[in-house]
Amino acid sequence: DKQYVRLQCDGFFDSLSVLNWGGIVFERKFSMNKLSDIPEISDSASPVFNDINQRQSILNYVDILHAGLRPELTIRHYAERYAALTVFDNLINPLFDNITVLYSASDGMNFSNVGSSIRLRNSVSAYNRGHGIAVTSRYGNVTLDNVHIFDNAGDGVYYAMNNTEWSLREQEESPKRLYKSFCETANSVEFPSYFTYRPPAAGTCCTQAFSSMYNTRLTVHFQSVFLADYRTRYRIELYNGQFDIMPLLANITFNRTLESLSSFSNELLVRLCHSCDDVRSLSCWNQSDRIQLYVVNDDGRDADVHIWNSRIVNNSLSGVRVVNLRSLIEINQTIINHNQRHGLDIDSGA
């Protein structure tokens, strides 16, 4: 059995909340000059999820008091928040257990632009001047288990699914973000994998098979669907394996952005097909049509957010606010009350 020694990280109380220490930061590092002199504790994560040299960080039994900042340009151009505990741009997120965050000048905990699941257990986030816990994710699968979130100046839990397309600049910064042709690329074993689907001709289909590590699951996220003619339809078929003789998971006809879809195993076959009422019509197929999507792997994703055995009370905005919900939110054996706006606010989604 491992022995854990509780660590307390405390700055000093500052009523102006501009001189607090910078908190603890888990950030995927690139070869770049440090742009800030803010004191922080950091880890470095490898840029590739499947990189065997990458190790998952663990933070257990830590109290973080009077941290967090709200100055200009704290993390490059992400100036709106700098939490007491920050996870930024990580593809493998740390495991958190028995964490207490109090009196942050900003959010208590902030997970920004993360690309894998989040696990937080047996923890407290309270009396912070921002949100108790804020998550902006490209994956989802956020689990809060036995977490107490109360008396924060923002939402108790703020969750947003960011499935926007990568810009050209962002693709140039990281080759992993480059969009590959769904119809012309060989089957992928690296994740996340980004694709652009353009039908090669009217009424045709393209197929991609994916295989990941054992005991993981695969999820397809849709970023955008652009159609020149509203009468055009596309169909997606998902099979729980690498061949279409495996169990069918989904068979959906669509002309707009879809909710996220997951496998039940570490293998997945995705087939995209073009269709319209008259495939011989000149307006049936347009070369400007395109679908942007990406596939990720992790230890499971059957909901955007799981909240279990928790207590979310007395926050100045909503208890739980969800923006761009792509799957579902699961709340079980949890108390959400006495928040100033809504208990649960689902702003938008598929």
Automatic annotation (TrEMBL):
One Pfam family this sequence matches: Beta_helix
Top-level taxon of origin: Eukaryota
InterPro entries xrefs: Beta_helix, PbH1, Pectin_lyas_fold, Pectin_lyase_fold/virulence
Domain Right handed beta helix: 91-165
Protein name in the entry: Right handed beta helix domain-containing protein
Source species: Adineta steineri
Taxonomy of the source species: Eukaryota, Metazoa, Spiralia, Gnathifera, Rotifera
